[in-house]
Amino acid sequence: MLVLCARAAATRGNNKPYRKARLGLIGAALAALLAGGCATAPPTSLLAPGDPGARVPAVRYSSVTAPYTRQRPVEPLPWRERNERVVPQAGQ
Prior knowledge:
- By secondary structure, the chain is mostly helical.
- It is 42% helix and 0% strand.
C-alpha cells in the first residue's frame, strides 16, 4: 500500500494506472473486514464468567524469586591458580 502511494506521489500527473490498484487494495481490505464480522460467535460457555460450573485450571504457587542464589563478595584468589584449575588435562 505504501509503495503504491509513493509511486502515485512521484508521478503526480499520471497516476491513473495506480488508481485502480489502490481501489483494488482498499476493496480487498474492506471485504476482509466485512467477512471477519460474519464469523461465527464463540461458544456461549466461554462467554459466561459467572457460571459456577465452568471449568478452570488448578491454581498452583510458584515463587518469583526461586532461581535466586545469594552471592556475597569474596577475596580474589591468585589468577594463575584459578586458571590452572580449569585448564583441560593432557589425557582428556
